[in-house]
């Protein structure tokens, strides 16, 4: 008999692949960070012994959730400026605060807080776009969490870089520094068509292509963004990206609340990924991404929280529920985005968007052991008719009990094993005090 690192015995498994499957009476064998077998416990016992075993009665195991768009360090700006539309929020509150306070220490402290929150919510991988991305990468690597960090670009100077040349140089240095790391990856992340010139978008795309990286950008977040571009440039931002050859399977188009027929067709035809952030879109009154229609057309979808300053949490479980509910509301079709599909876009959809579906996004033999367990024994999840329905429509992130990433037990009975919660909270409070002295 072979000895493996770990065997987990949950009550149910939602592997995501094959689709729409709930396994009962199955265990997972994990060795050297990978899923080695998924089989009934009796079969497992005949084949493997384990260094450690976890019995999880009443718990469902799923692939780790993938937060496909965030600004992790913005946890320190949670509740800093609420109930405002996007451009007022950004230009009158967030950007001035960032100009005054954002540096390496801010980003490290905010990223650690974000990672703690995300782990406690079952998020095992996040796709970030923020200043000082090396601080976010360091925090993620130390915590043992997967992250894709952005080589950011914005046309104005900040404490991070004095202009496009320096942003791009720092991004490429970041990419080289983390190349080959088992958890940390990079994307090219220009902020938006309204903050990055056409020339710089093209340069960024060339670098992304040369480095084989995704192109992660906010686009069509609001109707005002589209109208302004139409008035000043004569076309819509997405169509301009298309004219520049930037709509392709590397594109991670975040928000997309405004979409013409032609644009929907182009997204489907090119294999671009749309990152849906329904809660931030509602909080800033930005609009609704037509996800049900996009899904029907075969557009690749993933789910993000956006930053905690516009959401105001990093809760992907709740984002799944919101996405499923507003898809029905927007389309007028109660069958739009059913529970199983919400789970799929929050896991495999995110993995595909980040180009990491060969290793994460579903529970398959040979994939990395990034998995979470959710307790369904609580009154709020009782009685249990259908597991996926309970996960999406009734459970809360407080029911997440365990998280493994690459086979490492990073959340045990809701306690983070790689992070010092007391120190993280204390540092966040210190930053609150500094931010309040504005
Ligand atoms: C270049 S670093 C990222 C930059 O994006 C800002 N930001 C956060 N949320 C949003 C959003 O919803 N739309 C546009 N920009 C956003 C963040 O504050 C940083 O300045
Ligand atoms: Zn964003």
From TrEMBL:
Cell division in keyword set: no
Membrane-spanning intervals of the chain: none
SUPFAM superfamilies noted in UniProt: Composite domain of metallo-dependent hydrolases, Metallo-dependent hydrolases
Enzyme class, first EC level, given as a word: hydrolase
Highest rank taxon of the organism: Bacteria
Cofactor note: Binds 1 zinc ion per subunit.
Keyword field contains Hydrolase: yes
Role description: Catalyzes the deamination of 5-methylthioadenosine and S-adenosyl-L-homocysteine into 5-methylthioinosine and S-inosyl-L-homocysteine, respectively. Is also able to deaminate adenosine.
Name of the protein: 5-methylthioadenosine/S-adenosylhomocysteine deaminase
């Amino acid at each position: 008999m072979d000895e493996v690192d770990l065997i987990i015995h949950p009550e149910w498994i939602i592997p995501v692949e094959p689709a729409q499957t709930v396994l009962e009476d199955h265990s997972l064998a994990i060795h050297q960070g990978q899923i080695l077998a998924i089989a009934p416990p009796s079969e497992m016992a005949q084949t493997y012994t384990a260094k450690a075993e976890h019995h999880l009665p009443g718990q469902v195991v799923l692939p780790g959730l993938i937060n496909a768009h965030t600004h992790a360090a913005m946890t320190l700006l949670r509740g800093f400026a609420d109930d405002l539309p996007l451009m007022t929020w950004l230009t009158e509150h967030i950007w001035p605060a960032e100009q005054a306070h954002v540096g390496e220490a801010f980003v490290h402290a905010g990223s650690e807080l974000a990672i703690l929150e995300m782990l406690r919510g079952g998020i095992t991988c996040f796709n970030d776009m923020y200043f000082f991305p090396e601080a976010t990468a360091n925090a993620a690597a130390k915590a043992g969490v997967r992250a894709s960090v952005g080589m950011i670009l914005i046309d104005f100077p900040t404490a991070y870089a004095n202009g496009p040349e320096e942003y791009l140089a720092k991004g490429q240095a970041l990419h080289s520094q983390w190349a080959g790391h088992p958890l940390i990856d990079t994307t090219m992340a220009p902020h938006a068509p309204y903050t990055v010139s056409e020339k710089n978008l093209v340069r960024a795309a060339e670098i992304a292509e040369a480095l084989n990286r995704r192109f992660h950008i906010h686009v069509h977040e609001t109707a005002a963004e589209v109208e302004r571009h139409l008035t000043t440039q004569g076309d819509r931002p997405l169509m301009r990206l298309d004219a520049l050859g930037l709509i392709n399977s590397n594109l991670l188009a975040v928000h997309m609340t405004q979409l013409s027929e032609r644009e929907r067709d182009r997204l489907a035809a090119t294999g671009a990924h749309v990152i849906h952030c329904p809660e931030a879109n509602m909080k800033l009154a930005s609009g609704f991404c037509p996800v049900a229609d996009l899904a029907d057309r075969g557009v690749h979808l993933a789910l993000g929280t956006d930053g905690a300053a516009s959401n105001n949490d990093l809760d992907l479980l709740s984002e799944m529920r919101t996405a499923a509910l507003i898809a029905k509301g927007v389309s007028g079709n109660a069958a739009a985005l059913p529970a199983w599909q919400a789970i799929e876009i929050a896991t495999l959809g995110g993995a595909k968007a980040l180009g990491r579906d060969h290793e994460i996004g579903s529970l398959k033999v040979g994939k990395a052991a990034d998995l979470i367990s959710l307790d369904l024994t609580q009154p709020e999840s009782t009685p249990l008719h259908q597991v996926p329905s309970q996960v999406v429509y009734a459970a809360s992130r407080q029911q997440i009990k365990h998280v493994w990433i690459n086979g490492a037990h990073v959340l045990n009975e809701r306690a983070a094993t790689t992070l010092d919660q007391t120190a993280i909270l204390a540092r966040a409070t210190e930053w609150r005090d500094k931010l309040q002295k504005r």
